[in-house]
Every structure is written in structure tokens, then in C-alpha cells.
Design brief:
elongated; single chain; 80 residues; 3-stranded antiparallel beta sheet
């Protein structure tokens, strides 16, 4: 069995960030049945702590995700 401490920050809205701390557990198990024997790896995560960090709401927000390269040269092109 192997364990590893992990932490991650995830976007959770315009002004929120979710901070998650967890332990990743990896274990190898042998499955024994008549005439066969197989080893499988099992991976699971156990949450230790999770919280939402709240920031200020911005006056303006532009979501340019998914806009192709060179598709919009100026942000004012969005407002037409």
C-alpha cells in the first residue's frame, strides 16, 4: 500500500476558489478464483479537508475560454 498527500486549488466561480486536501491511497490486490490469479491496482482518495475561499466580486468579467487563436484581436470586438 502506498499513500501520498495531495492538495489542489480549483476554480469554483467568478470569485470563489475551492481548496482541497486529500490522501491518495494506492493498493495492489490479488484476486484468486479457480484456475486463475490476477493482480489489480486500486486507487482511492480520502478527503482530509475542503474549503471554499471567497474573494471580491469583480466589476467586470470576460470569459474568453474557447476563443480560437486570432479569432478576436481586440476585446472590443466582443461588444458589437
Amino acid at each position: 500500500m502506498n499513500t501520498d498527500y495531495k492538495t489542489e486549488f480549483l476554480s469554483s466561480g467568478i470569485n470563489q476558489t475551492r481548496h482541497r486536501i486529500y490522501i491518495e491511497i494506492k493498493s495492489e490486490m490479488s484476486v484468486v478464483a479457480p484456475f486463475t490469479n490476477e493482480t489489480v491496482e486500486v486507487v482511492t482518495n480520502v478527503n482530509v479537508a475542503e474549503t471554499v475561499l471567497i474573494g471580491n466580486v469583480p466589476d467586470t468579467f470576460y470569459n474568453l475560454e474557447g476563443v480560437g487563436n486570432g479569432a478576436i484581436e481586440n476585446a472590443t470586438d466582443l461588444i458589437q
